[in-house]
Amino acid sequence: MAKVKRQLAMMMDLNKCIGCQTCTIACKRLWTRDEGMDYMWWNTVNTMPGAGTPRDWEEMGGGFKDGVAQAGRLPTRREFGEAWEFNYQEVFYGGKGKDTHLKVVGDEPEWGPNWDEDQGAGEYPNAYYFYLPRICNHCTNAACLEACPRKAIEKREEDGIVVINEDRCKGYRFCMEACPYKKIYFNHAKNVAQKCIFCFPRVEQSVAPACARQCPGRLRFVGYRDDEEGPIWKLVEKWKVALPLHPEYGTDANVFYVPPLAPARIDEDGNFDESQPRIPNEYLISLFGEEVLTSLEVLKAEMAKTRDGKTSELMDILIARHWPDMFGDFTRDPATIKWVEA
Q1: CA–CA separation, 245 vs 235, rounded Å?
Q2: Which residues pair with residue 65 across a beta bridge?
Q3: Residue 220 domain-assigned?
Q4: What stretches of the chain adopt beta strand conformation (E)?
């Protein structure tokens, strides 16, 4: 396990995500525009329950169990979802805009990153879904780092960000097999693995990662895990409402989530039924572990306090009225920096 001085982390409030994909596009425009990166989405927002991206990634294995590394499966480009080509030239520049429509050129696609968007689960009138944004978890016990025979994957000592040294990477892809979250991609043009870098060039200039800064819903919080004045420590350690995704993978992930609440179920007479949650507890436990039930109870109790006119530190943090409070030491305006492209 790599030793670090401090660990950066991110927390996402799933009760505020509207699936707008602003975070996804902010990341795409900044980091994955080069050759071989067309199919890469370092930041994804999927509908849950759903197969996600790569397709059925939760069934591909990897990570650790009782401290022992688990064999995983290598996801294919098809499972990630190939980048599709559309007939832009014909529609926009070929004089046929009134007679034809945008469509995929070539073989019809079988899967894409948001193929099952907004489908969810359950039956009317008690259907449900929520959005799950995902990036690399920059794990404390990173399975990808342990799996790489080239020692091409490193955990930065100063902030715990997990990065890939592309000069050392030889494209073996053991890291992709080992990562239980399947958030590593392979660049077939450069023959190297690539993934989210937590926007470390921005972080080094005290600027929050692009996905967090661009989020219109104010659901992403950024900070060091040991900063007791920051939102991450308060949400994870003090209030214990923010949980890692699939803690059973044993990687000690450093991306956390406030689990989703949902409206009450509707009974046969059309009345609200509070006795059973609309999102099944069993499903949330499968994602976040048993602690999710306590987290939800704390959230409900603090919400009730505010409805009674009382104050709640937890609700004040999550509402995020003052956006700089969300980012700890990383509130600098990127427009004030003279960036140099590599």
Answers
A1: 15
A2: 68
A3: yes
A4: 8-13, 44-48, 64-65, 68-69, 130-134, 153-155, 162-164, 184-187, 192-195, 220-224, 243-244, 255-258, 265-266, 272-273
Identify which of 62, 316, 321 has the alpha carbon closest to the alpha carbon of residue 181. 62
Q: Helix crossing, 281-288 with 291-307: angle to 10°?
A: 110
Give the type of residue at 125: P
Please give the backbone phi and psi of residue 61, each rounded to the nearest 5 degrees, phi first: 75, -175
* 99 falls within a domain: no
Distance CA 108, CA 264 (A): 40
Name the 3-class secondary structure at 29: helix
For the chain, what is the domain count? 1
Structural domain includes residue 103: no
Helix (H) or strand (E) holding 342: none
- Given a contact cutoff of 8 angstroms between Cβ atoms, the answer to whether 281 and 291 are in contact is no
CATH number of the CATH domain containing 54: 3.30.70.20
Domain for residue 15, yes or no? yes
Residue 104's φ and ψ, nearest 5 degrees, are: -70, 135
In whole angstroms, what separates CA 223 from the centre of its chain?
16
Per-position pLDDT tens, the chain of length 342: 778 999 999 999 999 999 999 999 999 999 999 999 999 999 999 999 999 999 999 999 999 999 999 989 999 999 999 888 899 998 999 888 788 899 999 888 889 999 999 999 999 999 999 999 999 999 999 999 999 999 999 999 999 999 999 999 999 999 999 999 999 999 999 999 999 999 999 999 999 999 999 999 999 999 999 999 999 999 999 999 999 999 999 999 999 999 999 999 999 999 999 888 999 999 999 999 999 999 999 999 999 999 999 999 999 999 999 999 999 999 999 999 988 776
Q: Which domain holds residue 203?
A: 8-84+111-336
